[in-house]
Amino acid sequence: xxxxxxxxxxxxxxxxxxxxxxxxxxxxxxxxxxxxxxxxxxxxxxxxxxxxxxxxxxxxxxxxxxxxxxxxxxxxxxxxxxxxxxxxxxxxxxxxxxxxxxxxxxxxxxxxxxxxxx
Length: 118
Fold this sequence. Notes:
Layout: E1 4-7, E2 10-13, E3 18-24, E4 33-39, E5 46-51, E6 57-59, E7 67-72, E8 77-82, E9 91-98, E10 106-108, E11 112-117
Parallel strand pairs: 2-11
Antiparallel strand pairs: 1-3, 3-8, 4-5, 4-9, 5-6, 7-8, 9-10, 9-11
């Protein structure tokens, strides 16, 4: 099946920036919804950002104005640009791509850890 592989996580100082990438092994990015989620121990997985196949974006209130989701259809890659990071952004970030037409297409990456130091 299709695989999603996240990259770009790491340790960053508060106020800094990171760009996460999610590479898809198949050509599924263009025609489907792409999203980023994050999870920390003891908390439910949170939807951070989403972009539809028409380019409409949605963001969690906690990241609005700081994060930007985008995609490169030719590269089958999803991005999350994260600016003005703070320690509350520390989490494992997961890439997700799914279809609005069939539940067969619903893929998740294994996650990449983002740690923001104060």
